[in-house]
Amino acid sequence: MPDGSSPDTLPMHGTPMPPVRTDWTRDEVAALMALPFPDLIYRAQTVHRARFDPTEMQISTLLSIKTGGCPEDCAYCPQSAMHEDGGVKASRLMAVEEVLKEARAAKAAGAARFCMGAAWRSPKEHDLETVCAMVEGVKALGLESCVTLGMLDNSQAHRLKDAGLDYYNHNIDTSPEYYGDIISTRTFQDRLDTLENVRDAGINVCCGGIVGMGEDSTDRAGMIATLASLPRHPESVPINMLVRVEGTPLADRAEAVDPIEFVRTIAAARITMPASRVRLAAGREDMTDEAQTLCFLAGANSIFYGERLLTTPNPAAMRDRQLLDRLGMHTSHKQG
């Protein structure tokens, strides 16, 4: 079975450069994830070291610029207006200068990328104009910019590109087969159409999914296979562990995923998408330092700094710095 570890070009860090494939199947990914754990981690490390410094961690900061009131019914999300007990009240879009103040603080804390999220199905014209001003301001600070605004049509994507946007986040969330169990207000194809519009505009893609929503291991393999078989892999692949929020349909419905199984998902993402940044995203607040370390060994090389991810908790920056120091790792000031 192909594992993404055959030589392709000269090594970067003493190991053969793995080729980038875009034809991964669910069965191949499932077979990878079923490997004995030492073998899986070895393969992931081999692929990771070929393209990245294994001691380097890319840092991003995420800010909710418009919270709550979303018309979508994503079962995991407290920002949905359909989850009345979710506890997140709708707010207006933040002012540009207020956002830039947060961006300056993020840069001072060591972030290389500033991500802005708005709880919309898709942006309205006047809101998109304001977001473009935010992107321009973030870029002027010397930070990479990323936004997640819901679905985009082609013209909206090109407007964001003209403003200087570096990355657009739009997760597929789960496998195509399980998607309908989580969201009914938009289709899986809607997700793929937005990704295509973003690519067509020349914007880098940030796209991943969520683990722990009641899916099984074949769905996790299907999610990774879908990402790894896109015409071009996402430059950033955030892998989230579900944060159960009271008032959402998944608060009591889904059982927590074993941490080792979560690490297997990270490793599969690294092996199948060797040139991508694999980001350990939501859910870190509930992970032990040991579990996070295993994720780093499996190829995760990006995290979010800051005490909140949109509406859910995130480990304090001091805890992250202490863990990276204990591991002899350092943060990256490179963009990309």
**Count of individual helical segments:** 11
Strand content: 15-25%
The shape, in one word, is globular
Instruction: Give the integer mean of the pLDDT values.
Output: 87
Q: Return Rg in Å.
A: 19 Å
Number of strands: 12
Order of helices and strands: HHEHEHEHEHEEHEHHEHEEEHE
| Residue share in helix | 25-40%
Which key phrases capture this entry?
336 residues; two-stranded antiparallel ribbon; 11 helices; globular
Question: Which secondary structure elements does this structure contain, and how are they paired or packed?
Answer:
Elements: H1 26-33, H2 37-51, E1 56-66, H3 96-108, E2 113-118, H4 125-140, E3 144-148, H5 154-162, E4 167-169, H6 188-200, E5 204-206, E6 209-211, H7 217-228, E7 236-241, H8 250-253, H9 259-272, E8 277-280, H10 289-297, E9 302-305, E10 308-309, E11 312-313, H11 317-326, E12 330-332
Parallel strand pairs: 1-2, 1-9, 1-12, 2-3, 3-4, 4-5, 6-7, 7-8, 8-9
Antiparallel strand pairs: 10-11
Helix pairs in contact: 1-7, 2-9, 3-4, 5-6, 7-9, 9-10
Question: What does this protein look like?
Answer:
It is a single chain. By secondary structure, the protein is an alpha/beta fold. It is 37% helix and 15% strand. Strands 1, 2, 3, 4, 5, 6, 7, 8, 9 and 12 form a ten-stranded parallel beta sheet that branches. A two-stranded antiparallel sheet has the order 10-11. α1 (26-33) packs across α7 (217-228) and α9 (259-272) packs parallel to α10 (289-297). The radius of gyration is 19 Å and the shape is globular. It starts with 25 loop residues before the first helix and ends with a strand. The model is unreliable at 1-12 and 308-312 (pLDDT under 50).
